[in-house]
Amino acid sequence: MTALVIVGHGTRSAAGVDQFAGLVDRVRRRNAVGEVEGGFIELSRPPLTDAVATLVGRGHRALVALPLVLTAAGHGKGDIPAALAREQHRHPGLSYRYGRPLGPHPLLHTALAERIDTALAGADRAGTWVALIGRGSTDPDGNAEVAKVARLLWEGRGYAGVEPGFVSLAEPSVPAVLERLRRLGGRRIVVAPYFLFAGVLPDRIVAQARAYAAAHPELDVRVADPIGDCDALADLVLERHAEALRGDIRMNCDTCAYRVSLPGFADKVGRPQTPHDHPDDPVDGHDHHGHDHQGHGGHGHGHGHQGHGGHGHGRRGPDGRGVELGPGQVAVVGGGPGPDDLITVRGRALLDAADVVVADRLAPRGLLAGLRPEVLVVDAGKVPRGPSVGQDTINEALVGHARAGRRVVRLKGGDPYLFGRGHEEVLACAAAGIETVLVPGVSSAVAGPALAGVPVTHRGVAHDVTIVSGHLPPDHPDSLVDWAALGHARGTLVLLMAVDTVDRIAKALIGHGRAPDTPVLVVQDAGHPRQRALPTRLDEVGALTVREEVRPPALFVVGAVVGLRG
Ligand code: SAH
Hints:
Rossmann fold
């Protein structure tokens, strides 16, 4: 026997929570289904977690989960499946069949007509225009469903006309649709919220309709109630439950922006749904309506779980909590020392999500070939060199693309914060008000020696390692390195960016006490098939570098650890 869990999104409205609870109770009293519980994915009590725990506690391992949403949009396709996936993590072995959204359905249209009739209080339908107001979605397909319902509501019911509008995220807005109806000659207009229950957004519809009416005293503007807890809704829930048991979860995806390219939305195809805040939602701390970027980041936009015919449009991080790159954000990603597969899993995921990739010369450039064809690749290695011109150009590119709403990945070699100017880029973005994500990388300073068989520390041999930039020679006035201390020290030295300076550096180290026969390993192109590893000594490394025509990228490991090489 399966149990039914009815999943709501959550609302700040106490009346809305009561109506949800009332509906759950109404479905339960029908005694048509085994056990029935209801829970919310955010904002309201009880949380989904409690509802699932109750059912699991009573021995249920197979649930039907019904998203209590009217249209197939982000909540039903992404957020609620993500929340259910977290429950499956919590309760290994738990399976669920996912039902489809409630609408469109004749029961709903009849209920809407009844709410409109109540608002009309006997006034005739023929002289009445209806503004059907949906929530509004960033998915045009969700908005199109509201337009479809508007048409279905009009068919055969005798209204002068029914026009769709949206309270958030989509046009026309409530005042815009009222203005349209006024211009069409409407004098009596019923604003009908296409909403299940009371809530912040239905309240806003009322306020906006009243404000418009106050400015247009010649009009008769009335507002209908949302559908609310009623028998028709309970009937529909039971119907969707039966469908889910039969495995019938058809949902319109033919014109879904995540599946087919729509004008102006081409960037959504095949992408995870990105978290967004409804621009007009109240913001109070982290708990605002909508989506907390830390919380359930990575809403996979997949539906049809349990393998019945679903298609995952998006990708979610492990246990639904992957770090996401939103539009207008910049990720500074360490790409590792060179081979394509030494980037981190996180770095790779963000790279796959990028619209623009600004890649360094030493980044794992093989990965660029695998990017989607529409991704713009900016070759930072080709930016004219110079003390700061190049960096300014790169910073401007990062900020410019982010401001244009693109997901930007700055792909760097090794770790971005080791001689990588990564923090300069993060600061430049921050100064421009751009959000950044920093993804550490495997640094060549440690991985380069390792890939050539040398550990930078080893018990009983070297208990410290110093990573030094050799881009300035020891006698350079701008040098910040205490070469005398490094000469006296006994630990491992790893020199980066030192191909041109290694001779002078070696002499300085010997001058300050390092033994001339200290073993040195030159590692060029670590990790690449063309990797070279040349063993030598401190007093010979300069000559060898010239003779062997060592070319960047190369590093020098200095110290007894070099002798450990197998
Ligand atoms: N942020 C990078 C280092 C940037 S400085 C990191 O963490 O790895 C660039 C220097 O790194 C090069 O001049 C070279 O000294 C070293 N380097 C980078 N990749 C290398 C590789 N594959 N093999 C050897 N040295 C490398």
